[in-house]
Design brief:
Largest sheet: 7 strands, antiparallel
Mean pLDDT: 89
Number of strands: 12
Shape: globular
Radius of gyration: 22 Å
Low-confidence stretches: 270-275
């Protein structure tokens, strides 16, 4: 009912021009950056970016069973505003308007959410305080991440977009690093242990010493995060040997391939082998 409709607004000043703040939100990786680690939300599917008609499907763990949340983007005003509206999900209704207004050399970011809880007036009565507290916590986190990312990417002035190769991109660190880089405007190419599906992937097999040096052409930097997990179980003599070899073999292969490349990356940052 109309009485159960609620409005939540969060506003923060961002240390960047409005066009940079908008561009950050429009790039791949921004959504992943904005999902709080405690919220147990997964991006399942995405079609498009933030343009009208673009669609995102989330899996939300808000109880014993996961819920599906489907949102469609509408109301795009380039450089200023975009909206996402729930078409399927846990709320009775949800419309989120992102607004970015110029304010001198900085920008004002406003998140405006019109929502209604399920269950009518009773659901609103029982869940209103929890929903408002959750939104305050979530958007305090989102605005802090946005501010921090913009400060890092724009430190010292506009930064040239780089093409960065990352090993271990799906690991604990890599899965957080990739969205940070892509939302900042960089292009990421992942090293994968299978046939590459597209130009965003580089095939390699450290155990077999297989990596085409030509695949490194065009990379500005390489970040090496690959290696067997140190949290995969008890550290037996065999598991410690695998952990060590996975790091030594992959680092050796990467270093040799970079040395043989016609146009090697200008930045190389391999991790240290585990002791």
């Amino acid at each position: 009912s109309p009485m159960s409709s609620r409005l939540f607004v969060a506003r923060s000043r961002m240390p960047a021009p409005s066009e940079e703040v908008f561009a950050w939100h429009a790039r791949p990786g921004a959504l992943e950056r904005l999902i709080p680690p405690w919220s147990r939300v997964e991006v399942v599917e995405r079609t498009g970016g933030i343009e009208d008609g673009a669609r995102v499907v989330l899996r939300v763990y808000a109880g014993p069973l996961p819920q599906r949340w489907v949102a469609v983007h509408r109301g795009l005003v380039p450089g200023r505003q975009f909206e996402d509206e729930q078409v399927e999900g846990p709320f009775a209704s949800w419309r989120h308007t992102h607004r970015i207004e110029p304010d001198g050399a900085e920008a004002l970011l406003e998140d405006r959410i019109e929502y209604a809880l399920p269950g009518g007036w009773l659901g609103d009565l029982l869940g209103r305080a929890h929903a408002e507290a959750s939104l305050r916590r979530i958007f305090a986190y989102r605005h802090a991440v946005t501010r921090g990312d913009l400060e890092r990417h724009l430190h010292g002035g506009p930064m040239r977009a780089l093409t960065i190769g990352i090993t271990g991109a799906g690991g604990l660190v890599g899965s957080r690093l990739v969205p940070f880089l892509t939302a900042g405007g960089h292009r990421v190419r992942r090293f994968v242990r299978r046939a590459p599906r597209d130009a965003a992937e580089i095939g390699w097999e450290p155990a077999a010493g297989s990596l085409d040096p030509g695949a490194l052409d065009g990379l500005d930097a390489v970040i090496h995060l690959s290696g067997e997990s140190v949290a995969g179980g008890r550290w037996t003599a065999e598991s410690k040997d695998r952990i060590l070899r996975s790091r030594v073999d992959s680092t050796r292969l990467l270093a040799k391939s970079i040395a043989r490349a016609v146009r090697p990356p200008r930045v190389r940052r391999p991790h240290r082998a585990a002791p």
